[in-house]
Amino acid sequence: MSFCGGKNLWILFFDAKHLYRSYFKMALPMVLGLAVTLVYNLADTFFIAQTNDTNLIAGVSLCAPVFTALMAFGNIYGQGGSSLISRLLGGQDEEGAKRVSSFCFYVALATGLVLAVLMTALNRPLLTLLGADADTLPHAFQYYIVLVVCAPIMVLSFIHSNLVRCEGMSAESMIGTILGAVVNIILDPILISVAGMGAMGAAVATVIGYFCSVLYFLWLLRKKSRCLSVKISACRISSKELRQILGVGVTAALSNLMQSLCAIVLNQFLLPYGNDKIAAMGIVLKVNMIAQLILIGFAFGGVPLFGYLYGARQREEMKKLVRFCLGFMVALSLAMTAALCLFASPLMGAFVQDAAMIATGAEMIRWQAISTVFAGIVLLLTVLFQAVGRVVPSFVLSISRQGVVFVAVLLVCVRLFGYNGVLMGQAAADVVSALIALILLAVSNPMGPKEENSSDL
User: Fold this and answer.
1) pLDDT at 2
2) Which residue has the higher pLDDT, 27 or 8?
3) 12: buried, middle or exposed (CB in 10 Å: 19+, 13-18, 0-12)?
Protein backbone atom coordinates (compact mmCIF):
# COMPACT_ATOMS: atom_id res chain seq x y z
CA MET A 1 0.00 0.00 0.00
CA SER A 2 1.32 3.42 -0.91
CA PHE A 3 0.26 6.97 -0.08
CA CYS A 4 -0.34 9.82 -2.51
CA GLY A 5 2.78 11.92 -2.47
CA GLY A 6 3.92 10.14 0.70
CA LYS A 7 1.52 12.24 2.79
CA ASN A 8 -1.56 11.50 4.84
CA LEU A 9 -4.49 11.78 2.43
CA TRP A 10 -6.73 13.58 4.91
CA ILE A 11 -4.15 16.36 5.32
CA LEU A 12 -3.61 16.42 1.55
CA PHE A 13 -7.26 16.81 0.55
CA PHE A 14 -9.06 18.33 3.53
CA ASP A 15 -8.56 20.67 6.48
CA ALA A 16 -8.85 18.35 9.48
CA LYS A 17 -8.91 21.24 11.95
CA HIS A 18 -11.87 22.91 10.25
CA LEU A 19 -14.28 20.09 9.43
CA TYR A 20 -17.26 22.31 8.61
CA ARG A 21 -15.13 24.51 6.36
CA SER A 22 -14.05 21.41 4.45
CA TYR A 23 -17.71 20.42 4.06
CA PHE A 24 -18.73 23.75 2.54
CA LYS A 25 -15.61 23.75 0.37
CA MET A 26 -16.85 20.50 -1.14
CA ALA A 27 -20.57 21.29 -1.21
CA LEU A 28 -20.76 24.87 -2.53
CA PRO A 29 -19.09 24.15 -5.91
CA MET A 30 -21.45 21.21 -6.40
CA VAL A 31 -24.47 23.41 -5.63
CA LEU A 32 -23.23 25.97 -8.16
CA GLY A 33 -22.59 23.29 -10.75
CA LEU A 34 -26.11 21.92 -10.33
CA ALA A 35 -27.50 25.46 -10.59
CA VAL A 36 -25.74 25.89 -13.94
CA THR A 37 -27.16 22.54 -15.07
CA LEU A 38 -30.64 23.80 -14.18
CA VAL A 39 -30.03 27.00 -16.18
CA TYR A 40 -28.88 24.85 -19.11
CA ASN A 41 -32.06 22.75 -18.96
CA LEU A 42 -34.21 25.87 -18.98
CA ALA A 43 -32.16 27.43 -21.81
CA ASP A 44 -32.31 24.23 -23.88
CA THR A 45 -36.10 24.22 -23.53
CA PHE A 46 -36.20 27.91 -24.44
CA PHE A 47 -34.23 27.56 -27.71
CA ILE A 48 -36.27 24.54 -28.81
CA ALA A 49 -39.49 26.44 -28.06
CA GLN A 50 -38.35 29.41 -30.18
CA THR A 51 -38.87 27.30 -33.30
CA ASN A 52 -42.63 27.41 -32.63
CA ASP A 53 -42.80 23.91 -34.09
CA THR A 54 -45.07 21.90 -31.79
CA ASN A 55 -44.03 18.55 -33.25
CA LEU A 56 -40.35 19.41 -32.84
CA ILE A 57 -40.82 20.42 -29.22
CA ALA A 58 -42.87 17.29 -28.50
CA GLY A 59 -40.42 15.01 -30.32
CA VAL A 60 -37.45 16.25 -28.29
CA SER A 61 -39.46 16.13 -25.06
CA LEU A 62 -40.33 12.49 -25.68
CA CYS A 63 -36.64 11.62 -25.61
CA ALA A 64 -36.08 13.00 -22.10
CA PRO A 65 -36.20 9.47 -20.57
CA VAL A 66 -33.37 8.42 -22.91
CA PHE A 67 -31.10 11.07 -21.42
CA THR A 68 -32.22 10.07 -17.90
CA ALA A 69 -31.41 6.43 -18.62
CA LEU A 70 -27.90 7.23 -19.91
CA MET A 71 -27.29 9.42 -16.86
CA ALA A 72 -28.47 6.58 -14.61
CA PHE A 73 -25.97 4.14 -16.14
CA GLY A 74 -23.20 6.72 -15.70
CA ASN A 75 -24.13 7.22 -12.06
CA ILE A 76 -23.85 3.49 -11.39
CA TYR A 77 -20.09 3.75 -11.81
CA GLY A 78 -19.70 7.44 -10.93
CA GLN A 79 -21.47 7.40 -7.58
CA GLY A 80 -20.81 3.74 -6.83
CA GLY A 81 -17.12 4.23 -7.59
CA SER A 82 -16.81 7.49 -5.64
CA SER A 83 -18.30 5.87 -2.53
CA LEU A 84 -15.75 3.04 -2.60
CA ILE A 85 -12.80 5.28 -3.56
CA SER A 86 -13.54 7.68 -0.69
CA ARG A 87 -13.36 4.82 1.79
CA LEU A 88 -10.20 3.43 0.19
CA LEU A 89 -8.48 6.81 0.39
CA GLY A 90 -9.67 7.17 3.98
CA GLY A 91 -7.80 3.92 4.64
CA GLN A 92 -4.72 5.30 2.82
CA ASP A 93 -5.07 2.79 -0.02
CA GLU A 94 -3.88 4.72 -3.10
CA GLU A 95 -3.38 1.60 -5.18
CA GLY A 96 -6.96 0.50 -4.54
CA ALA A 97 -8.26 3.94 -5.54
CA LYS A 98 -6.35 3.76 -8.83
CA ARG A 99 -7.66 0.29 -9.59
CA VAL A 100 -11.28 1.19 -8.89
CA SER A 101 -11.14 4.48 -10.81
CA SER A 102 -9.62 2.78 -13.85
CA PHE A 103 -12.21 0.01 -13.71
CA CYS A 104 -15.09 2.51 -13.47
CA PHE A 105 -13.80 4.40 -16.52
CA TYR A 106 -13.44 1.37 -18.78
CA VAL A 107 -16.58 -0.46 -17.67
CA ALA A 108 -18.54 2.77 -18.23
CA LEU A 109 -17.05 3.00 -21.73
CA ALA A 110 -17.98 -0.64 -22.44
CA THR A 111 -21.48 -0.11 -21.06
CA GLY A 112 -21.93 2.91 -23.32
CA LEU A 113 -20.88 0.90 -26.36
CA VAL A 114 -23.33 -1.91 -25.56
CA LEU A 115 -26.13 0.61 -25.03
CA ALA A 116 -25.29 2.31 -28.33
CA VAL A 117 -25.59 -0.95 -30.27
CA LEU A 118 -28.77 -2.15 -28.54
CA MET A 119 -30.62 1.19 -28.55
CA THR A 120 -29.72 1.87 -32.18
CA ALA A 121 -30.98 -1.55 -33.25
CA LEU A 122 -34.19 -1.14 -31.24
CA ASN A 123 -34.84 2.50 -32.14
CA ARG A 124 -38.34 2.03 -33.63
CA PRO A 125 -39.91 -0.01 -30.79
CA LEU A 126 -38.26 2.18 -28.15
CA LEU A 127 -39.47 5.40 -29.78
CA THR A 128 -42.97 3.95 -30.02
CA LEU A 129 -42.78 3.04 -26.33
CA LEU A 130 -41.80 6.63 -25.54
CA GLY A 131 -44.99 7.81 -27.25
CA ALA A 132 -43.78 8.97 -30.67
CA ASP A 133 -46.45 9.07 -33.39
CA ALA A 134 -46.38 9.84 -37.12
CA ASP A 135 -46.02 13.59 -36.52
CA THR A 136 -43.35 13.51 -33.80
CA LEU A 137 -41.40 10.43 -34.88
CA PRO A 138 -39.10 12.20 -37.42
CA HIS A 139 -38.01 14.79 -34.84
CA ALA A 140 -37.78 12.27 -32.03
CA PHE A 141 -35.65 9.94 -34.17
CA GLN A 142 -33.20 12.73 -35.08
CA TYR A 143 -32.66 13.59 -31.42
CA TYR A 144 -32.72 9.97 -30.24
CA ILE A 145 -30.25 8.57 -32.76
CA VAL A 146 -27.56 11.14 -31.94
CA LEU A 147 -27.84 10.47 -28.21
CA VAL A 148 -27.74 6.68 -28.47
CA VAL A 149 -24.94 6.52 -31.05
CA CYS A 150 -22.91 8.74 -28.71
CA ALA A 151 -23.97 6.80 -25.60
CA PRO A 152 -20.32 6.08 -24.59
CA ILE A 153 -19.67 9.85 -24.33
CA MET A 154 -22.87 10.45 -22.38
CA VAL A 155 -22.20 7.65 -19.90
CA LEU A 156 -18.53 8.62 -19.43
CA SER A 157 -19.43 12.24 -18.72
CA PHE A 158 -20.93 11.28 -15.36
CA ILE A 159 -17.89 9.28 -14.15
CA HIS A 160 -15.08 11.68 -13.32
CA SER A 161 -17.36 14.53 -12.26
CA ASN A 162 -18.06 12.26 -9.27
CA LEU A 163 -14.65 10.62 -8.84
CA VAL A 164 -12.47 13.75 -8.75
CA ARG A 165 -14.45 15.00 -5.74
CA CYS A 166 -12.94 12.08 -3.79
CA GLU A 167 -9.61 13.90 -3.99
CA GLY A 168 -11.12 17.15 -2.77
CA MET A 169 -11.38 18.63 -6.27
CA SER A 170 -14.96 19.81 -5.91
CA ALA A 171 -14.23 23.13 -7.64
CA GLU A 172 -12.68 21.29 -10.60
CA SER A 173 -15.74 19.03 -10.77
CA MET A 174 -17.91 22.15 -10.95
CA ILE A 175 -15.74 23.60 -13.72
CA GLY A 176 -16.15 20.45 -15.80
CA THR A 177 -19.92 20.55 -15.38
CA ILE A 178 -20.12 24.25 -16.21
CA LEU A 179 -17.85 23.82 -19.24
CA GLY A 180 -20.19 21.29 -20.82
CA ALA A 181 -23.27 23.39 -20.04
CA VAL A 182 -21.77 26.59 -21.48
CA VAL A 183 -20.68 24.86 -24.70
CA ASN A 184 -24.16 23.39 -25.00
CA ILE A 185 -25.89 26.74 -24.48
CA ILE A 186 -23.65 28.44 -27.07
CA LEU A 187 -24.20 25.72 -29.67
CA ASP A 188 -27.96 25.31 -29.19
CA PRO A 189 -29.16 28.42 -31.10
CA ILE A 190 -26.43 28.01 -33.71
CA LEU A 191 -27.24 24.40 -34.58
CA ILE A 192 -31.00 24.45 -33.97
CA SER A 193 -31.93 27.66 -35.76
CA VAL A 194 -28.99 29.13 -37.69
CA ALA A 195 -27.83 25.82 -39.17
CA GLY A 196 -31.44 24.62 -39.39
CA MET A 197 -30.64 21.23 -37.86
CA GLY A 198 -33.67 21.24 -35.57
CA ALA A 199 -33.86 18.29 -33.18
CA MET A 200 -30.59 16.83 -34.42
CA GLY A 201 -28.87 20.16 -33.74
CA ALA A 202 -30.10 20.10 -30.14
CA ALA A 203 -28.76 16.58 -29.67
CA VAL A 204 -25.41 17.38 -31.31
CA ALA A 205 -25.00 20.43 -29.07
CA THR A 206 -25.71 18.26 -26.02
CA VAL A 207 -23.20 15.58 -27.03
CA ILE A 208 -20.45 18.10 -27.87
CA GLY A 209 -20.96 19.79 -24.51
CA TYR A 210 -20.59 16.52 -22.63
CA PHE A 211 -17.62 15.50 -24.79
CA CYS A 212 -15.84 18.71 -23.76
CA SER A 213 -16.47 17.77 -20.14
CA VAL A 214 -14.99 14.30 -20.71
CA LEU A 215 -11.85 15.78 -22.30
CA TYR A 216 -11.48 18.29 -19.46
CA PHE A 217 -11.66 15.56 -16.81
CA LEU A 218 -9.15 13.37 -18.65
CA TRP A 219 -6.78 16.35 -18.78
CA LEU A 220 -7.41 16.98 -15.07
CA LEU A 221 -6.53 13.41 -14.15
CA ARG A 222 -3.31 13.62 -16.12
CA LYS A 223 -2.20 17.00 -14.71
CA LYS A 224 -3.56 17.21 -11.16
CA SER A 225 -4.86 13.88 -9.88
CA ARG A 226 -2.68 12.02 -7.40
CA CYS A 227 -4.79 8.96 -6.72
CA LEU A 228 -7.01 8.32 -9.76
CA SER A 229 -6.09 6.52 -12.95
CA VAL A 230 -7.30 5.57 -16.43
CA LYS A 231 -4.43 3.18 -17.13
CA ILE A 232 -5.72 -0.05 -18.61
CA SER A 233 -3.08 -1.98 -16.62
CA ALA A 234 -4.73 -0.82 -13.38
CA CYS A 235 -8.21 -1.96 -14.47
CA ARG A 236 -8.81 -4.80 -12.01
CA ILE A 237 -10.96 -5.15 -8.92
CA SER A 238 -12.08 -7.90 -6.57
CA SER A 239 -15.56 -9.41 -6.55
CA LYS A 240 -16.20 -7.71 -3.19
CA GLU A 241 -15.29 -4.30 -4.65
CA LEU A 242 -17.54 -4.95 -7.66
CA ARG A 243 -20.45 -5.73 -5.34
CA GLN A 244 -19.82 -2.47 -3.49
CA ILE A 245 -19.72 -0.41 -6.70
CA LEU A 246 -22.87 -1.99 -8.11
CA GLY A 247 -24.68 -2.09 -4.78
CA VAL A 248 -24.27 1.63 -4.16
CA GLY A 249 -24.28 2.66 -7.83
CA VAL A 250 -27.48 0.87 -8.82
CA THR A 251 -29.33 2.44 -5.90
CA ALA A 252 -28.08 5.88 -7.02
CA ALA A 253 -29.22 5.17 -10.57
CA LEU A 254 -32.64 4.13 -9.30
CA SER A 255 -33.07 7.60 -7.81
CA ASN A 256 -32.77 9.12 -11.30
CA LEU A 257 -35.23 6.65 -12.79
CA MET A 258 -37.71 7.05 -9.92
CA GLN A 259 -37.88 10.81 -10.52
CA SER A 260 -39.12 10.17 -14.05
CA LEU A 261 -41.60 7.59 -12.77
CA CYS A 262 -42.87 10.05 -10.16
CA ALA A 263 -43.62 12.71 -12.79
CA ILE A 264 -45.38 10.20 -15.07
CA VAL A 265 -47.57 8.86 -12.25
CA LEU A 266 -48.41 12.35 -11.02
CA ASN A 267 -49.52 13.43 -14.49
CA GLN A 268 -51.74 10.37 -14.81
CA PHE A 269 -53.52 11.22 -11.55
CA LEU A 270 -53.95 14.85 -12.64
CA LEU A 271 -55.31 13.93 -16.08
CA PRO A 272 -58.98 13.62 -14.96
CA TYR A 273 -58.85 17.18 -13.63
CA GLY A 274 -57.81 18.81 -16.93
CA ASN A 275 -54.72 19.64 -18.98
CA ASP A 276 -54.41 23.00 -17.21
CA LYS A 277 -53.61 21.13 -13.99
CA ILE A 278 -50.93 19.08 -15.77
CA ALA A 279 -49.46 22.22 -17.33
CA ALA A 280 -49.38 23.98 -13.97
CA MET A 281 -47.72 20.98 -12.30
CA GLY A 282 -45.06 20.92 -15.03
CA ILE A 283 -44.08 24.48 -14.13
CA VAL A 284 -44.32 23.75 -10.39
CA LEU A 285 -41.92 20.81 -10.66
CA LYS A 286 -39.38 23.04 -12.42
CA VAL A 287 -39.70 25.67 -9.67
CA ASN A 288 -39.44 23.04 -6.95
CA MET A 289 -36.39 21.58 -8.68
CA ILE A 290 -34.47 24.71 -7.67
CA ALA A 291 -34.90 23.82 -4.00
CA GLN A 292 -34.28 20.13 -4.66
CA LEU A 293 -30.99 20.77 -6.50
CA ILE A 294 -29.75 22.97 -3.66
CA LEU A 295 -30.50 20.19 -1.19
CA ILE A 296 -28.92 17.57 -3.46
CA GLY A 297 -25.77 19.68 -3.77
CA PHE A 298 -25.36 20.11 -0.03
CA ALA A 299 -26.21 16.44 0.61
CA PHE A 300 -23.71 15.08 -1.90
CA GLY A 301 -21.14 17.61 -0.75
CA GLY A 302 -20.62 15.46 2.33
CA VAL A 303 -20.05 12.17 0.48
CA PRO A 304 -16.23 12.38 0.15
CA LEU A 305 -15.92 13.47 3.78
CA PHE A 306 -18.22 10.74 5.06
CA GLY A 307 -16.29 8.15 3.05
CA TYR A 308 -12.87 9.38 4.23
CA LEU A 309 -13.87 9.50 7.89
CA TYR A 310 -15.50 6.08 7.69
CA GLY A 311 -12.49 4.55 5.93
CA ALA A 312 -10.10 6.20 8.41
CA ARG A 313 -12.27 4.99 11.35
CA GLN A 314 -12.61 8.52 12.73
CA ARG A 315 -16.07 7.82 14.16
CA GLU A 316 -16.35 10.80 16.50
CA GLU A 317 -15.43 13.24 13.75
CA MET A 318 -17.95 11.56 11.47
CA LYS A 319 -20.75 11.80 14.06
CA LYS A 320 -19.91 15.46 14.58
CA LEU A 321 -20.11 16.14 10.83
CA VAL A 322 -23.38 14.22 10.38
CA ARG A 323 -25.03 16.10 13.26
CA PHE A 324 -23.91 19.41 11.79
CA CYS A 325 -25.13 18.47 8.29
CA LEU A 326 -28.51 17.39 9.62
CA GLY A 327 -28.93 20.66 11.48
CA PHE A 328 -27.81 22.69 8.49
CA MET A 329 -30.11 20.81 6.07
CA VAL A 330 -33.09 21.32 8.39
CA ALA A 331 -32.41 25.06 8.72
CA LEU A 332 -31.83 25.46 4.98
CA SER A 333 -34.99 23.48 4.16
CA LEU A 334 -37.13 25.60 6.47
CA ALA A 335 -35.76 28.78 4.90
CA MET A 336 -36.55 27.53 1.39
CA THR A 337 -40.02 26.41 2.48
CA ALA A 338 -40.76 29.90 3.76
CA ALA A 339 -39.45 31.51 0.57
CA LEU A 340 -41.37 29.21 -1.79
CA CYS A 341 -44.63 29.58 0.15
CA LEU A 342 -44.29 33.36 0.38
CA PHE A 343 -43.38 33.91 -3.28
CA ALA A 344 -45.45 31.08 -4.80
CA SER A 345 -47.66 33.38 -6.91
CA PRO A 346 -44.81 35.58 -8.26
CA LEU A 347 -42.84 32.45 -9.18
CA MET A 348 -45.77 31.11 -11.19
CA GLY A 349 -46.29 34.56 -12.71
CA ALA A 350 -42.75 34.44 -14.12
CA PHE A 351 -43.84 31.58 -16.37
CA VAL A 352 -47.51 32.20 -17.17
CA GLN A 353 -49.89 35.18 -17.26
CA ASP A 354 -53.20 33.37 -16.76
CA ALA A 355 -54.60 34.28 -13.31
CA ALA A 356 -56.36 30.94 -12.83
CA MET A 357 -53.22 28.94 -13.64
CA ILE A 358 -51.14 31.16 -11.34
CA ALA A 359 -53.56 30.47 -8.49
CA THR A 360 -53.56 26.73 -9.24
CA GLY A 361 -49.78 26.59 -9.48
CA ALA A 362 -49.25 28.65 -6.32
CA GLU A 363 -51.30 26.14 -4.34
CA MET A 364 -49.27 23.28 -5.84
CA ILE A 365 -45.98 25.01 -4.99
CA ARG A 366 -47.01 25.39 -1.35
CA TRP A 367 -47.91 21.70 -1.11
CA GLN A 368 -44.58 20.73 -2.71
CA ALA A 369 -42.61 23.09 -0.44
CA ILE A 370 -44.25 22.29 2.88
CA SER A 371 -42.33 19.01 3.28
CA THR A 372 -38.93 20.25 2.05
CA VAL A 373 -37.35 19.66 5.48
CA PHE A 374 -38.31 15.97 5.33
CA ALA A 375 -36.98 15.68 1.78
CA GLY A 376 -33.68 17.16 2.98
CA ILE A 377 -33.38 14.55 5.74
CA VAL A 378 -34.05 11.71 3.28
CA LEU A 379 -31.47 13.02 0.80
CA LEU A 380 -28.74 13.45 3.41
CA LEU A 381 -29.24 10.02 5.00
CA THR A 382 -29.43 8.37 1.57
CA VAL A 383 -26.02 9.70 0.56
CA LEU A 384 -24.64 8.88 4.02
CA PHE A 385 -25.57 5.23 3.53
CA GLN A 386 -24.10 5.32 0.01
CA ALA A 387 -20.85 6.87 1.27
CA VAL A 388 -20.24 4.15 3.83
CA GLY A 389 -21.32 1.34 1.51
CA ARG A 390 -24.55 0.31 3.25
CA VAL A 391 -26.37 -1.03 0.23
CA VAL A 392 -29.72 -2.12 1.68
CA PRO A 393 -30.60 1.15 3.49
CA SER A 394 -29.53 3.28 0.52
CA PHE A 395 -31.59 1.05 -1.80
CA VAL A 396 -34.68 1.35 0.41
CA LEU A 397 -34.43 5.15 0.52
CA SER A 398 -33.67 5.41 -3.20
CA ILE A 399 -36.99 3.78 -4.09
CA SER A 400 -39.06 5.35 -1.32
CA ARG A 401 -39.59 9.12 -1.47
CA GLN A 402 -40.11 9.28 -5.25
CA GLY A 403 -40.92 5.66 -5.81
CA VAL A 404 -42.76 2.93 -3.93
CA VAL A 405 -43.72 5.07 -0.92
CA PHE A 406 -44.83 7.93 -3.17
CA VAL A 407 -47.11 5.75 -5.28
CA ALA A 408 -48.59 3.98 -2.23
CA VAL A 409 -49.21 7.22 -0.34
CA LEU A 410 -50.59 8.92 -3.45
CA LEU A 411 -53.16 6.14 -3.93
CA VAL A 412 -54.35 6.53 -0.35
CA CYS A 413 -54.47 10.34 -0.49
CA VAL A 414 -56.39 10.37 -3.77
CA ARG A 415 -58.90 7.85 -2.42
CA LEU A 416 -59.47 9.97 0.69
CA PHE A 417 -59.20 13.54 -0.62
CA GLY A 418 -59.57 13.45 -4.42
CA TYR A 419 -57.81 16.32 -6.21
CA ASN A 420 -56.36 17.68 -2.95
CA GLY A 421 -54.96 14.22 -2.33
CA VAL A 422 -52.96 14.49 -5.56
CA LEU A 423 -51.47 17.76 -4.32
CA MET A 424 -50.57 16.45 -0.87
CA GLY A 425 -49.18 13.12 -2.11
CA GLN A 426 -45.53 14.20 -2.33
CA ALA A 427 -45.64 15.93 1.06
CA ALA A 428 -47.09 12.82 2.72
CA ALA A 429 -44.51 10.62 0.98
CA ASP A 430 -41.70 12.89 2.22
CA VAL A 431 -42.88 12.57 5.84
CA VAL A 432 -43.18 8.77 5.65
CA SER A 433 -39.79 8.44 3.88
CA ALA A 434 -38.10 10.64 6.50
CA LEU A 435 -39.44 8.41 9.28
CA ILE A 436 -38.11 5.35 7.42
CA ALA A 437 -34.74 7.06 7.00
CA LEU A 438 -34.45 7.90 10.70
CA ILE A 439 -35.40 4.33 11.65
CA LEU A 440 -32.74 2.96 9.30
CA LEU A 441 -30.21 5.38 10.80
CA ALA A 442 -30.93 4.08 14.28
CA VAL A 443 -30.97 0.41 13.25
CA SER A 444 -27.99 0.30 10.89
CA ASN A 445 -25.64 2.68 12.76
CA PRO A 446 -23.69 3.76 9.63
CA MET A 447 -21.25 5.75 11.76
CA GLY A 448 -20.13 2.66 13.65
CA PRO A 449 -17.81 -0.16 12.54
CA LYS A 450 -19.15 -2.69 10.07
CA GLU A 451 -18.04 -6.27 10.52
CA GLU A 452 -16.91 -8.20 7.48
CA ASN A 453 -19.68 -10.79 7.80
CA SER A 454 -22.45 -8.42 8.87
CA SER A 455 -25.43 -7.61 6.75
CA ASP A 456 -25.80 -4.33 4.93
CA LEU A 457 -27.85 -3.05 7.85
Assistant:
1) 42
2) 27
3) middle
Helix spans in 224-354 (H): 239-270, 275-300, 303-311, 315-342, 344-349
Residues 6+ apart with CB under 8 A from 380: 298, 299, 302, 325, 326, 329
Other C-beta atoms closer than 10 Å to the C-beta of 240 total 9
Closest CA to 75 of 307, 296, 253: 253
> Among 264, 277, 266, 292, which Cα is nearest to 413's?
266
Cα distance between residue 257 and residue 191, in whole Å:
29
Instruction: State the DSSP code for 438.
Output: H
pLDDT confidence of residue 332: 93
Q: Which of 195, 191, 194, 161 is nearest to 179 (CA)?
A: 161
Q: Say how far apart CA 354 and CA 246 lie, in whole Å.
A: 47
Average pLDDT, integer, range 257-280: 73
Q: What angle do CA 414, 268, 131 make, to 5 degrees?
A: 170
Query: What DSSP string describes 180-214?
Result: HHHHHHHHHHIIIIIS--HHHHHHHHHHHHHHHHH
Return d(Cα 133, Cα 444) in angstroms, integer: 49
Evaluate if residue 30 carries a pLDDT over 80. Answer: no
pLDDT score of 145:
93
Q: How many residues does the chain have?
A: 457
Mean pLDDT check: name the lowest of 104-108, 245-249, 251-255, 410-414.
Answer: 251-255
Q: What is the pLDDT of residues 315-354, one digit of tens each?
A: 888 888 888 989 999 999 999 999 999 998 888 887 667 7
